[in-house]
């Protein structure tokens, strides 16, 4: 290692103060703090990485290693380069002994620090880390997946620090606790767990943290991906954790006794535990009058019933149960289906698949083109299919109503799960009629009753029944009546509202 040091020293005598690029590694893991932390060893870790810079200041025998696109260049110039470039060797030690310069003798910590936006300063066989993290990031904008008419319009971003500030801005309390964890053997993704001490159930917090620490995976990129690793039932179609991009929604969950997980690099924040009915609640419900919020929420549950059953009922009735069709409508239906060569179940599946193709195309294409494809494609294909005798007018109405109803559900993840359920119910209705449809619905209810979220009931407050919580399920009662936190969170501090009625 002494030979390496002499070679590097002779090389540094020939270089000026311009940054030198070193090409870098597969990062070798090391936890031995006695291992050499010379400049050569650290640069060896970053072999073949052209985005890692090595800057040398020969006059004071200082070497600086950093990643340019991970740092704030203004802060780097002001607090690191300017002081070090205008100092004599004898005056260097007092600068490096300041609190913002953190001395480290752990090679692994130094490498991780450089990768995390810190500057490593080498001087006299000592290494100092200086935090100047400041990469380019997206500004706070409005959420595109959780739009509201009234209320705040800011949304989480891909930067965990920004997301924490959005939460702290709303919760000015020292009882808001933050735990920092890492997930991913390769990506080392940082996850912040947030809860309010004195409100959150610490058993649930411990369980949540334990599940995160138990994740063994190479990489985690997003909150939606992360939530699937801690699910109670990973093979279920239903999401067991609520995902939100709205700070106000996240804070309402915190105050309600729930736990948040902020994944660095993702705008999706995970809330736990979650009940099935939480996916039908929107921030708009609380920003409008209670009567309007109640009507809107009930409309969502009606939309849920329509989207999973409307097309299936059409298939069941037209295949097996003509006696259920009103006499005034049966002639119209017979005329509409007289030219259709397919049985109702095939006809319905073709149209549902076509709708899903249009939906997916509209989502993947640029916004303006996607809207055009969705509107024009739906009208043209539907009209052409009827004229060609491939489907009936009434089925077009049923499929369109089901598709529109699915958009009423605030949670995109839940909406996608419900769309898949619709296909299963259509097949059951085509095989066994109303019996198959009811059997499918019964299976869904039984499955929901068996699900849990972080060990708590997924169908709370229905199973087990907690009558006090019903005031914020199908209806949104006035705030004077919403005095307690949900029983699902198992908090000892259940009182949240002391308003006079």
Provide an overview of this structure.
The protein is 45% helix and 12% strand. By secondary structure, it is of the alpha+beta class. It folds into three domains: 130 residues, no CATH class; 115 residues, no CATH class; 171 residues, no CATH class. The strands form three sheets. The protein has a six-stranded antiparallel beta sheet, sandwiched between helices. Strands 7-8-10-11-9 form a five-stranded antiparallel beta sheet, with helices on both faces. The N and C termini lie far apart (77 Å). Keywords: Membrane, Transmembrane, Transmembrane helix. This is Spore germination protein A1.
Strand fraction: 5-15%
Low-confidence stretches: 1-36
What is the molecular shape? elongated
Instruction: Tell me roughly what share of residues is in helical segments.
Output: 40-55%
Secondary-structure element string:
HEHEEHHEHEEHEEHHEHEEHHHHHHHHEE
Compute the CA-based radius of gyration: 30 Å
Number of strands: 13
Set down the secondary structure blueprint.
Layout: H1 2-12, E1 20-22, H2 39-45, E2 52-57, E3 62-66, H3 73-85, H4 92-96, E4 102-104, H5 107-115, E5 118-123, E6 126-131, H6 160-170, E7 176-183, E8 189-196, H7 202-213, H8 223-229, E9 242-244, H9 247-255, E10 259-263, E11 269-272, H10 284-287, H11 290-319, H12 327-337, H13 344-364, H14 367-387, H15 393-408, H16 412-432, H17 434-450, E12 452-453, E13 456-457
Antiparallel strand pairs: 1-2, 2-3, 3-5, 4-6, 5-6, 7-8, 8-10, 9-11, 10-11, 12-13
Family: Belongs to the GerABKA family.
Organism: Paenibacillus allorhizoplanae
Transmembrane segments: 298-320, 370-388, 394-413, 425-448
């Amino acid at each position: 290692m002494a030979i390496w040091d002499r070679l590097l020293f002779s090389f540094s005598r020939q270089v000026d103060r311009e940054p030198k690029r070193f090409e870098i590694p597969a990062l070798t893991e090391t936890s031995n703090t006695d291992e050499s932390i010379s400049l050569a060893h650290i640069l060896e870790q970053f072999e073949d990485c052209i985005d890692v810079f090595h800057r040398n200041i020969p006059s004071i025998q200082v070497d600086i290693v950093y990643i340019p696109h991970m740092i704030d260049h203004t802060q780097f110039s002001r607090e690191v380069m300017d002081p070090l470039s205008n100092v004599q060797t004898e005056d260097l030690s007092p600068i490096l002994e300041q609190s913002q310069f953190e001395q480290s003798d752990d090679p692994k910590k130094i490498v991780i620090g450089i990768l995390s936006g810190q500057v490593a300063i080498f001087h006299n066989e000592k290494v100092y880390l200086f935090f100047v993290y400041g990469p380019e990031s997206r500004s706070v904008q409005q959420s595109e997946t959780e739009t509201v008419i009234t209320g705040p319009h800011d949304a989480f971003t891909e930067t965990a620090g920004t997301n924490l500030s959005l939460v702290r801005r709303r919760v000015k309390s020292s009882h808001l606790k933050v735990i920092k964890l890492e997930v991913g053997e390769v990506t080392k993704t940082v996850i912040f767990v947030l809860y309010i001490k004195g409100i959150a159930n610490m058993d649930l917090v411990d369980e949540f943290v334990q599940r995160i620490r138990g994740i063994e995976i190479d990489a985690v990129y997003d909150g939606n991906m992360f939530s699937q690793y801690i699910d109670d039932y990973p093979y279920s179609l239903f999401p067991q954790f609520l995902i939100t991009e709205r700070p106000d929604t996240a804070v309402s969950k915190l105050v309600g006794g729930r736990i948040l997980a902020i994944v660095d690099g993702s705008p999706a924040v995970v809330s736990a535990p979650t009940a099935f009915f939480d996916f039908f609640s929107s921030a708009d419900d609380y920003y409008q009058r209670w009567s309007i919020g109640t009507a809107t929420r009930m409309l969502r549950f009606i939309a849920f019933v329509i989207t999973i059953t409307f097309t299936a009922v059409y298939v069941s009735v037209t295949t097996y149960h003509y006696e259920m069709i009103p006499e005034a409508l049966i002639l119209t239906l017979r005329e509409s289906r007289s030219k259709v060569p397919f049985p109702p179940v095939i006809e319905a599946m073709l149209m549902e698949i076509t709708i899903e193709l249009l939906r997916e195309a509209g989502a993947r294409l640029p916004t303006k083109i996607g809207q055009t494809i969705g509107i024009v494609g739906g009208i043209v294909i539907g009209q052409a299919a009827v004229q060609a005798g491939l489907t009936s007018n009434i089925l077009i109405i049923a499929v369109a109503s089901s598709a529109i109803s699915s958009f009423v559900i605030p949670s995109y993840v839940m909406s996608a799960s419900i769309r898949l359920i619709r296909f299963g119910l259509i097949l059951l209705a085509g095989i066994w009629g109303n019996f198959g449809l009811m059997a499918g619905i019964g299976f869904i209810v039984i499955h929901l009753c068996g699900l849990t979220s972080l060990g708590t009931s997924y169908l709370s407050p229905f199973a087990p029944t907690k009558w006090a919580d019903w005031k914020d399920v199908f209806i949104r009662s006035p705030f004077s009546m919403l005095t307690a936190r949900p029983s699902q969170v198992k908090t000892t501090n259940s009182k949240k509202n002391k308003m006079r009625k």
